[in-house]
Amino acid sequence: MNDDRREGVAETITVRRRLVDELPDALPPAPARFLLTDENVARLLVRGWHDRPGYRWSELPQHVVPAGEASKTWETLGAVLRAMDAAGLDRDGQLVAVGGGVVTDLGGFAASLHRRGVDWVAVPTTLVGQVDAALGGKTAVDLGGGKNTVGTFHHPAAVLVDPTCLATLDRRELAAGMAEVLKTALLDGPDAWDAACALDEEAVRTGSDATVAVIRRCLATKGVLVERDPFDRGERRLLNLGHTFGHALEALALAAAPRAGAAASGLLHGEAVGLGLLCAARLGAGRADGPLEEVLRAQLRTWGLPETRAVEADAVLAEMGRDKKRRAGGHVLVVVAAPGEVGVRRDVPEEEIRAALEAIRPR
Amino acid sequence: MNDDRREGVAETITVRRRLVDELPDALPPAPARFLLTDENVARLLVRGWHDRPGYRWSELPQHVVPAGEASKTWETLGAVLRAMDAAGLDRDGQLVAVGGGVVTDLGGFAASLHRRGVDWVAVPTTLVGQVDAALGGKTAVDLGGGKNTVGTFHHPAAVLVDPTCLATLDRRELAAGMAEVLKTALLDGPDAWDAACALDEEAVRTGSDATVAVIRRCLATKGVLVERDPFDRGERRLLNLGHTFGHALEALALAAAPRAGAAASGLLHGEAVGLGLLCAARLGAGRADGPLEEVLRAQLRTWGLPETRAVEADAVLAEMGRDKKRRAGGHVLVVVAAPGEVGVRRDVPEEEIRAALEAIRPR
User: Could you give the percent of chain B with pLDDT greater than 70?
Assistant: First the structure.
């Protein structure tokens, strides 16, 4: 293994308020840089950087993609790569991706291919990006109808998290990010869970000390799993807690309104994960009134996240079967009995999955 | 480092006559396969496989790209990936790339991205593919006007070489491949050089024992360098012998006839490498009548490869400067004084480069 090639998690993870204002100093040194962002972030955040003394952001070669999942395509990735080539970014250059999960997935992917791999830095600006998407080295775009069907493993040289970026998020996006926070806290244990549950919108939006602590803890929890399983062949699967149910719900929502996209279809990724957590808790408790399910439900309610979803169990099972086809064997699910009490169950019978789906059935 | 990820050279390298006839048995086991090839190879080679007893090639999901460098594009790569997705190839599936350097570059690239990486097998059918392109893990397509501007490192699980495939190559392609054979033999040493010089067209086309031995030796020489420098940061640069001059000559030829492509522009990659070897030998000898240059010139003549090229030294230097911009510092060139006496020279002065170009000046 060549030392120039990082295969662990990011070398530097920094979580600090107003970090974006110090960005030129916080970035790892590089002889040349290229900035990737989306239209929203460019307007709300990056524009304000141009006049900073000491660093001329306006002179940095950059590419701005439209905001939203619709930019996570093969064609957009090609456009990013053409812009990097036109900018003459060398092999020792650095791509800086500032934005949500779409921008960091796209940026990491482009960085892994340009000149067969250049360094990149993730500056996630959404909650889901800050606690989850920017870390782990998985890059991807959607191709052929599926999500994340093509991609690479390419860890960022640094992940720079400024929670004050969250001030500009709309409430629904913020809440969807909280579902990932809750998931990661459940993987971690009772302390992390209590800390996550103690957050409220005001605290998160202002990047309070408590918020900084929760984000750091989420990144540490994910980092340990990624470090143990860099290419997602085993242990990292715990991160799928809530996601197997969640992906099926998302796919069904998208199938119902394919052109509208995830948001308009009525189910953001984080919202689907929240529902998936309820199912995973029901499966973990083995009965309807487990204590975790109740506190989880209360948390989702606090954040305005959905607790129910009208879906046919058969349709969910069909979607889970499609997902499962990518691996051999029966249904593999991550279940949770209590914070920190998480496990992978193999060959889960269909009856149990149907029973778990009762947790999200509309009353 | 996860064991599932290969970072050395290919696990299996097999060179054997009639290997393609035994291909089903020679391929590493896989639950599912996907075949990538080009129109020429499909017509000349793959079509004959369909009726083989014991293996139904015709039932294998496959994608056929047009023959030639024009297929090494971002768009074609996207089409290959869409076909792999449509075929439902799983993460444990295997891509089999049968063809020249374009097909193996494209196939390795697609395999590295599909589901974030599946195994692939290279079955090179051209001489340049068999001795060079299929081994080393470098995958690429052309984007933004440059060659191999985007790509990945993704070693094939196996490289399967059948020299009898060379029977169908046209003479010019065969000769261009011989330039890479000569280059690799110069890196290796006197024995390898003598063995390479002893080959003739009849021997190569029939895949004689001597040809098999030379191909094996070329692959071993490249394999050692790749193994020592998997991500092309140092030692592997020796493989650039003849290529720094060669790339500049190729780029100038393409610039003169951009739409026509490499072949029509009057200079194949291997032909440019042959000319580059003459320059590298002149540079290595430090004088015009070095003994290596003379035997090299005789070899090029034997194979009908060009010994001269009408180019302006200024234009070549400008192209080499553009290439150089990708790294820091002055001109870095690989020079050769005799078979096995090869070295990397840094900050080569322009006067010496001009003097070396005299080696290919038309009389």
Answer: 90
Collapsed DSSP state (helix, strand, coil) of residue B8: coil
Residue of A nearest to B152 (CA): A116
Question: In the structure, what pLDDT confidence band is assigned to residue B289 with cuts at 50, 70 and 90?
Answer: low
The CATH code that applies to domain B172-360 is: 1.20.1090.10
Which two three-digit tokens encode residue B361? 């000046």
Which chain B residue is nearest to residue A77, measuring alpha carbons? B74
Kindly state the DSSP code that residue B73 receives in the 8-state scheme.
B
pLDDT for residue B264: 56
C-alpha A316/C-alpha A173 separation (Å) is: 24
- What pLDDT, on the 0 to 100 scale, is given for residue B8? 58
> What is the spatial distance between Cα A4 and Cα A20, in angstroms, rounded to a whole number?
27
Return the domain boundaries, chain B: 3-169, 172-360
Does the pLDDT at position B7 exceed 50? no
Query: In chain A, which residues have their Cβ closer than 8 Å to the Cβ of B231?
Result: 2, 4-5, 116-117
ipTM of the complex: 0.89
B354 touching A, CB under 8 A? no
Query: Chain B contacts of A232, Cβ < 8 Å?
Result: 116
Helix residue spans in chain A (DSSP H): 23-26, 39-44, 74-86, 101-113, 127-128, 171-188, 190-197, 201-205, 209-228, 243-256, 261-264, 269-285, 291-302, 313-324, 350-357
What's the topology of domain A3-169? Rossmann fold (3.40.50)
DSSP string, A41-71: HHHHTGGGGTT-TT--GGGS-EEEEPSSGGG
Q: Is the pLDDT of residue A4 over 50?
A: no
* Paired strand residues for A122: A97, A159
- CA atoms of A282 and A285, how far apart (whole Å): 5
- Residue of B66, B199, B79, B64 whose CA lies nearest to B130: B199
pTM of this prediction?
A: 0.91
A vs B: CB pairs below 8 A? 112
CA A25 to chain centre: 26
Do residues B274 and B212 make contact, with C-beta atoms less than 8 angstroms apart? no
Angle between helices A243-256 and A269-285 in degrees, nearest 10: 140
**pLDDT digit string (tens) for A16-55?**
999 988 888 889 999 999 999 999 998 888 766 655 666 6
What's the CA dihedral at A107, A109, A112, A116 to 10 degrees?
-110
Under 8 Å between Cβ of B253 and B348: no
Contacts of B47 (CB under 8 A, 6+ apart): none
Contact B270, B131 (CB under 8 A): no
Q: State yes or no: pLDDT of A328 exceeds 70.
A: no
Show residues of chain A in contact with B140, CB under 8 Å. Answer: 116
Region A87-101: what's the mean pLDDT?
95
Rounded to the nearest angstrom, the minimum Cα separation between B242 and chain A is 21
What is the secondary structure of B297-346 as a DSSP string?
A: HHHHHHTT--------HHHHHHHHHHHHTTSSSS--EEEEEETTEEEEE-
In whole angstroms, give the CA distance from residue B151 to residue B169.
27
**A1 vs A303: which has the higher pLDDT:** A303
Reference A103, options A144, A154, A139, A79; nearest CA is A139
CB-based burial label for A207 (10 Å; 0-12, 13-18, 19+): buried
Any idea which residue has 């510092």 for tokens?
B329
The yes-or-no verdict on residue B290 having pLDDT over 80 is no
**Residue holding tokens 């993609």?**
A65
Average pLDDT of B174-186?
97
